[in-house]
Design brief:
By secondary structure, the protein is mainly alpha-helical. The protein is built from 17 helices and four strands. About 60% of the residues lie in helices and about 0% in strands.
């Protein structure tokens, strides 16, 4: 079996260390291209080495928690006085290229599945409401995901690693210690990718929206428990405890925010004396508000802006609010006003025709009558009902599926472009953050491949890896995204432009709130929670498909056990049989 000798090994404490020297330190894309060539050629890479004498450390026998003398990363903060030669598990995978190649393929499949499931969430209600055809939604969403991953991708492998277990903990993976288990950790990240990707592909095929973050976390939990034990897992609120709590907090928080936004716009716009006039006054404000919310969300999560003063972030967010509000008022709303005028003309024409033939005023023919049950809901709120006359609509009401008046329908039309704009911004934000669910574990695997048992520092994922991940997310959304889009937009409850916007706003605002409160929240759970809560208020409890919601909730519960179980089985067969 060919392998690259990553560090010189000797009986003394001068064991090679993963600090490369000058000309021997290619990085980034060049480094990734050189490694396979060196592997095939059987070449060696020179490293600096450290020893106990170099740092005035006393060499002792290897015990749990003792530093490795060859590890040059022993900092002064550790206040170490002793070290020992490496006596951990042999590293059969160290320097082998196959795990990087296969791991890269699995990471691409993971990104593909993210596009087919998680990325499609942002467009479910937009498509279900008829604001945009599913083909255009997938194309726009794919562009947003790719741009977000490439331009503002902040995939940090440490987010996935330390949230479950700390690689440098002497009681866990013990990176940098004499009993390091980083060779098992390398294969473990590969197993976690396999478990998460396979589960995601299956649930996407059956059109169930789940959290891709929880899928990869489940894989890491499974491989950690199998290799080290349950005591190594991080059960705090910043780790698994927060993830379990988010199953309840995420949909509940988004649902409450969504109901508040829905009732606010319902009273301000749709129950006003002139709904259309109020809509044209409010919608530019909502353009600016959703922009400010999503700009703040990205700045709170991005590694490039995360450490920026919160005051500066709020100022940038406020400026984006004003700029977008003004632009939408002068550039977007005139086009919307033209569309509303055309609707008014068509309604007047239909009313005149109906009045002359029946002697009574009927509502415009494009206003649907309320369906008797959820299973008979139209695929889009813009569909035309049967040609027979329907009773004069009394207008929208809470907790019941009512037919809107002509004025309310025209006011609802003003939310269409706002909805598509919001969905695209969410795709951009999602691509910049959740693409790391595929690229983060691969970066951890590749870093361990490079530095072996001394890959203790978390590294930012290079932009070109984020770009490849974003491209596969976009591909997955365009090939498989329609499945989850259909579930989110048409199988839970009836949605229109107004309900759909409130859902997207609630999801984004819930993520902001959770981030500020250091509470991990799932965008998928937020989307589903908002749809269900708003659907109950807008249409009534009986017009929400509770069996479908039950299937989705069940898929959330089994996400961690199944993806983690697959990873655990791979670890078991690799190291214990």
């Amino acid at each position: 079996r060919l392998s690259i000798p990553l560090r010189s090994r000797s009986s003394s404490s001068h064991v090679g260390q993963a600090r490369r020297t000058g000309a021997m330190a290619p990085s980034g894309l060049v480094w990734s291209l050189l490694y396979p060539a060196l592997f095939l050629a059987g070449g060696a890479i020179a490293y600096e080495s450290c020893s106990a004498a170099d740092r005035d450390l006393t060499q002792v026998e290897c015990n749990q928690g003792e530093w490795d003398c060859a590890y040059c990363g022993i900092s002064k903060k550790a206040k170490a006085t002793t070290c020992a030669d490496y006596r951990g598990v042999d590293a059969p995978l160290e320097g082998q290229v196959w795990i990087v190649i296969v791991g890269g393929i699995v990471a691409c499949l993971m990104a593909f599945a993210i596009g087919g499931n998680d990325a499609a969430n942002s467009w479910g209600t937009a498509v279900g409401s008829g604001a945009i055809p599913v083909a255009y939604a997938c194309m726009l969403g794919g562009v947003g995901e790719f741009l977000g991953a490439t331009l503002l991708g902040y995939g940090v492998s440490g987010t996935i690693q330390k949230g479950v277990s700390n690689p440098t903990d002497g009681n866990c993976w013990a990176c940098g210690h004499c009993d390091s288990k980083m060779n098992m950790y390398q294969f473990g990240m590969f197993a976690a990718l396999c478990g998460a990707a396979s589960f995601l592909l299956v649930v996407t095929f059956v059109a169930l929206p789940i959290s891709t973050t929880h899928s990869i976390v489940g894989g890491v939990v499974g491989m950690t428990a199998a290799a080290i034990g349950w005591n190594c897992l991080n059960w705090s609120m910043t780790g698994l405890g927060g993830i379990f709590l988010s199953w309840v907090v995420s949909p509940l928080l988004a649902g409450i925010i969504g109901v508040i936004m829905y009732v606010f716009t319902y009273l301000i716009v749709f129950k006003a004396k002139d709904p259309v006039k109020n809509a044209f006054l409010l919608v530019p404000f909502l353009f600016g508000l959703i922009t400010a919310v999503l700009v703040l969300m990205v700045m709170l999560k991005s590694t490039s802006t995360k450490n920026m003063d919160i005051g500066v972030k709020l100022i940038v967010s406020a400026v984006s609010f004003v700029v977008v509000m003004v632009i939408s008022h002068f550039l977007v709303m005139p086009r919307v006003r033209k569309q509303v005028s055309e609707m008014q003309s068509e309604a007047n024409s239909q009313n005149s025709s109906a009045s002359s033939s029946t002697g009574s005023m009927n509502p415009p023919l494009d206003i649907p009558s309320p369906p008797p049950s959820l299973s008979e809901l139209p695929e889009s709120n813009e569909q035309k009902p049967p040609d027979e006359a329907v009773p004069t609509p009394k207008g929208m009401a809470l907790f019941t599926l009512a037919v809107p008046t002509a004025e309310q329908r025209m006011a609802r039309k003003t939310f269409q472009i706002l909805l598509v704009y919001t969905a695209f911004l969410e795709s951009f934000a999602h691509g910049s953050n959740d693409t790391a669910n595929a690229t983060g574990p691969f970066t951890a695997l590749y870093t361990t491949y490079q530095d072996g048992r001394y890959a203790c520092k978390t590294q930012n994922t290079p932009w070109y890896i984020m770009a490849v991940g974003g491209a596969f997310v976009a591909l997955g959304m365009n090939i498989m995204g329609y499945r989850v889009i259909t579930t989110m937009g048409k199988k839970i409850t009836q949605v229109d432009f107004h309900i759909a916007f409130c859902t997207e706003f609630a999801s984004a605002f819930a993520v902001i709130t959770g981030t500020l409160a250091n509470m991990p929240v799932s965008t998928t759970h937020c989307q589903v929670g908002a749809v269900v809560f708003i659907g109950c208020v807008a249409s009534g409890f009986k017009n929400v498909s509770w069996p479908m919601f039950g299937q989705i909730a069940l898929s959330w519960v089994v996400t961690l056990p199944i993806s983690g179980g697959i990873a655990a089985l791979m670890m078991f067969f690799r190291f214990f049989i």
